[in-house]
Amino acid sequence: MIIRSKAPLRVSFGGGGTDVAPFCENQGGVIIGSTINKYAYCSILPRNDEEIIVHSLDFDMTVKYNTKENFVYDGKLDLVKAALKAMDIKEGCEVYLHCDAPPGSGLGTSSTVTVALLSAMAKWKRIDLDTYRMADLAFGVERIDLGISGGYQDQYATTFGGFNFMEFHGRNNVVVNPLRIHKEIIHELEYNLIMCYTGGVHVSANIIDDQVKNYENQDSFMAMCEVKALAYAMKDELLKGNLNAFGKLLDYSWNSKKRMSNKISNPAIDALYNRAKQDGAIGGKLLGAGGGGFLLIYCPFNARHKVAAGLEDMGGQILDWNFELRGVQSWIVDTDRWDYQSIDIRLPEGEFRFDV
Any alpha helices (H) in 279-354, and if so which ranges? Predict the structure, then answer.
């Protein structure tokens, strides 16, 4: 058999950075966002020996382990090693991993890969993990076991899927509120949003560490409070379908977030954003911690074509995408069905045979 899983990448609209300690532990952090139809995939093929072979298709890398070895975190597929330890994998297997977006895209790729990997392992071992336990397990693998800097949103967003308003007060105190948004509002929001790849790759850990360092700075702290308040306002306007107001709040939030760290934006990103606004966009933001990756732009439908053309003229790459309302999914493939066989079809004109 083959065990497969796929987990959706996420876009955050507001609250980014407030889900990072110490702000979320002291003040309470919030995130409003959704998942999209770009995924991280995992396939597991059980083996009859003690060898674990991991293929990272994105990095064109293959690494081999033994189930009895003590895994050492050396920078080579450490997420996989930590997941193997967390799930106590004692049987040989072959693992294939790949993702629809590159690392550093701002779409939460590493967390999404982690959730896809853990979900497939849980399916293989017949361990029933609910969404909260799955997200917390992935958080523990990344943030605790590996010490990777970051917040809470990525693991919870990809596990739950869809539109959510998430509240964070530290580990074991997370509440995910699914948003019941009318499908016509979702369709219109989707049509009015543009995702543009800036061509840059951000190093989120460096930006987050700088943000944490600035927590004691009064202006940075107030900027975090503003980002949090704007996330609540975005939720209200989105639920009511006031999308132009939602787009304007994106603009306010982006300007506030840039005050949290001078590493969040750069002249190239600012130039792309300013061009979009000149061409008719109402607002937008950089996805992820900052520094590069995807720029999310909201514009009225009659300015959409002009905004997209302007971004492409400046070297941006427009992504074709849609919202995804489901979270991580896993399933088992019965490979016995793959065997070749002959199919006989009897018709009045005669008897026919096909090998399939």
Answer: 304-313
**pLDDT of 202 above 60:** no
Annotation marks residue 154 as catalytic: yes
Count of the separate structural domains present in the chain = 1
d(CA 281, CA 316): 15
CB atoms under 10 Å from CB of 69, counted, come to: 10
Task: Quick: pLDDT tens for 214-241.
Answer: 777 888 899 999 999 999 999 999 999 9
Whether residue 352 is contained in a domain is answered as no
Tell me the three state secondary structure of residue 323: strand
| Beta carbons of 21 and 58 less than 8 angstroms apart | no
Q: Is residue 153 a contact partner of residue 19, using CB atoms and an 8 Å limit?
A: yes
pTM: 0.91
Nearest CA-CA partner of 8 in 112, 101, 104, 111:
112
Would you say residue 188 lies in a domain? yes
31-59 tens-digit pLDDT: 999 999 999 999 999 999 999 999 999 88
Q: What is the CATH number of the domain that holds 205?
A: 3.30.230.120
Q: Of residues 100, 136, 154, 251, which has the active-site annotation?
A: 154
Q: Of 6, 313, 32, whose CA–CA distance to 189 is shortest?
A: 32
Give which of 243, 28, 67 is closest to 152, Cα–Cα.
28
Split at pLDDT 50, 70, 90, the class of 166 is very high
Is residue 270 within 8 A of residue 295, CB to CB? The reply is no
Q: Which domain holds residue 34?
A: 2-332
Which of these, 82, 81, 117, lies nearest to 98 by C-alpha position? 117
Phi-psi region of 17 (alpha: psi -120 to 50; beta: other; left: phi over 0): left
